[in-house]
Every structure is written in structure tokens, then in C-alpha cells.
Amino acid sequence: MRILFLCQYYYPEKVPGHQIAEAFVKEGHQVTVVCQTPNYGFKNTLPGYENGKEEVLHGVKIIRLKTRARKKGLFSLMRNYLSFYFAVNRWARTKASSFDVIYAWSLSPVLYLSAGKIIKKRQKIPFYIHVLDCWPASVFYVLKKKEKGLFHYLLKKVSASYYKSADHIFVSSPSFSSYLKNVCGKKCPPISFLPQPYEEEECKPYSLSTKKHSFLYAGNIGKLQLVVNLIEAVSYCKNEDLDFHIFGNGSAFEECKKKVQELGLEQQVIFHDYVSFGELKNIAKQMTGVFVSLESQGESVVSQTIPLKCINSLTFGIPIIGILKGDGKKVLEEAKGCVFSSSLPKEIAAKMKFLCSLSSKERHEMGKNNQNYAQENFSLTHFMKNLQIYLLK
Question: Are both 116 and 16 inside the same structural domain?
């Protein structure tokens, strides 16, 4: 089968879609990925990709379309979104070869799904959309605004036109289903729950100096991830033999660094650059616990999501401190290796101290519960088996 894998972000950008594309190849399919030139998480387009590039990695043909790099600020973000939107639409109309099926990995923005709509109509082939980030809900969640007004109406109409063009929609969180049905109305395609698989990468060496008890946060450092709250929680643990290691970057990075200086926590809160998932798995072995945090905003469907960080963290084999609600919290509850906190720093600190008070055996049992749950529900093998039931019809 000739599969078009449509996504804006792809390896070496920090998204896991590449393992799905490579799994398709191992199953004997021909896979073509169409994505932007790599820049997400790198501040600039990586050298050698400035003008777009076609390459083959692990059997996957990758067409990287020239895209303006995503930098700081709303203007740069919109320029990035629109440049890829126009580039992928041009490609869909003029250069797309023949495919048997389209599989779109739908992270923000929803705009590039237009290319799938174009190719479906031209080639009369099935179009599947995997929704990992609901539009327009995610836009208003980030802006911290209610879903109403002319802007919401227009975004809802645009999003609905793309969703309704699909033959089938997969959602990464159960709560997305009712929201998408509301967005699409009576012509909503069939919807199935299919959570993301965890990243599968072997442990890689990483040297890290830690105290008796260490806590981990890894990923995007934005306001929604509550990293400032986690830092403030450490200030309630100044007399404890513990430290907090933060791996990643994001819009709230500078605010977090200032908060560390303000609270005099330079010896307990340590910042690190992004590392590979294999290195993270090795780092986690030294940790007392890992944070999975997401700000809750009322009844927004985005607050109900199962973050990939939640799924990946289960595989570390250590206890999790969960600061989230909705479907993500339900997953962690079922895993039975987690404790939960509100976003209040004092309460977060209490959960940190609680994990420190447990014996190594008790923490090991919690971590093992998490790993077992992940293997039973979120493995790549499990994911591919369920996905291909639909794609190979």
C-alpha cells in the first residue's frame, strides 16, 4: 500500500510520528511523509534544509517543504503556520504522486489538513485524520479566552470543513469525540479512540549528578505546563536532600530561570537542554519521581487530553506526580503508580515529600505498575494493530 503520511512536524523535530511511519515500512508499505523543513524546537531551520529537501530515512521517503522557521512571538508562529499551509497546498495540487490512502497526524495547526482534502478529491482515495490537538479549542485554550465571537465562528467553520472531509477520525483522548461531533454537526465522520503510542527507544548513557532524592520534568516549558509552580514547590523543600532537574525549553523558560534566582534555588533546580528519549529513560532511573503537569481551564476539552508526556512517563518505571484532570488523570489512576496534586506549590511539595518518605521497594512497585499499564495499552505494536484494521479495509 502507498501511504501518504501528512504532518507538519517530523524527526528530528521532537514529535513521535516517525516511529509510526517506520512501522508502516516494516509492515511492507511504501510511505511518503510530507512535512515542513525542521525548525520546531530549534529556533531556526536546521542547516542543509533551508530550501526544502527530499530524503529517505529508515525506508521512509520524506518531502520537506520550505517553511518559515517558528521563533518567538505570535507573528512568527502565524508566519510558520501559513508558510507551510501554502507550501503543502501547492505540493498537493501540482506535485503529489499517486497514493492509496492518506493518514494525517493532526497537531496544531489544523490548516495543513487542507492538503489531504485536496488529494482525496483529486485521487479519490480514503482520508484518515488522527486528532491529537482539537481545533478550535486548543487556540482558545492557549489564548485563555472563551470559545465565542466571530473569530471562534470562523475557526470552527474552517476546522469543520477539514474534519468533515475525512472518511474516519481517530482521537487521542476519548473526550475529543463529543467536541468534534459538536464542531462537525450532522456530517461528522465516524470517530474511534486511538491513543498515541509511547516512544520506543533503547536507553542511552547520560551522566547526571543528583542528590538523595531527585525529581524530573522533561518537555515543553510553557505557561500551561506549570513549571513555575513546580519550581516554587521546591522552595518548600529547601531543608530536604533533593533536587529538581528540568530538561527542555519553551516560552516560559526565562520566567522559570528568574523564579529560581528569585527564590535562591540555584543549587536545587538545574536546567538542561533537550535530550533524546533514550537518554531520558536512563536519567529517570535516578529519579524519585517525574512530573506530568497541565493547567486546567474550566471545561475546555484541551484540559481533558491525555498528554504524550503522560504516556511516555509511564514507561520510566518510577512514580508520577500528576497535576492534571480529565482523561489524562484517569489513565494515571488506572496505572496505579501515581500520586495527584493541585497546582498549588505547597501541595506539590507535600507530594514530593511523600514520595521521598516511601521505601525504595514501594516506589519500585509504583513504577512497575506504570510500566505494565503502558505496555498493555500504549505500545507501538498495539497502536499499529488497531490503526491498520481501518487503513487496510
Answer: yes
Same domain as 189, residue 56: yes
What are φ and ψ of residue 362, in 5° steps?
-65, -40
The CATH number for 256's domain is 3.40.50.2000
Domain containing residue 261: 213-377
pLDDT at 297 over 70: no
Query: Buried b vs exposed e over 59-86: b needs ≥16 C-beta within 10 Å?
Result: ebbbbbbebbbbeeeeeeeebbbebbbe
Q: In what order do the strands lie in the sheet with 60-65?
A: 53-57, 60-65, 30-36, 2-6, 101-106, 127-131, 168-171, 191-193
Question: Which helix H or strand E contains 34, and what residues bound it?
Answer: strand 30-36
203 within some domain: no
**Spatial distance between the Cα atoms of 195 and 287, rounded to a whole number of angstroms:** 26
Condensed to tens digits (0 to 9), the pLDDT of residues 131-148 reads: 998 888 787 777 777 878
Q: Give the whole-angstrom CA distance, residue 27 versus residue 274.
A: 31
Percent of the chain clearing pLDDT 90 (strictly above): 68
Alpha carbon 197 to chain centroid, angstroms:
11
Of 93, 80, 72, 58, which Cα lies nearest the Cα of 8? 80
Same domain as 384, residue 360:
no
d(Cα 197, Cα 205) in Å, to the nearest integer?
23
Residue that is written with C-alpha cell 492534571 in the block: 324
Residues 299 and 190 in one domain: no
Torsion of CA 83, 85, 86, 87, to 10 degrees: 80
User: Do 20 and 85 lie in a common domain?
Assistant: yes
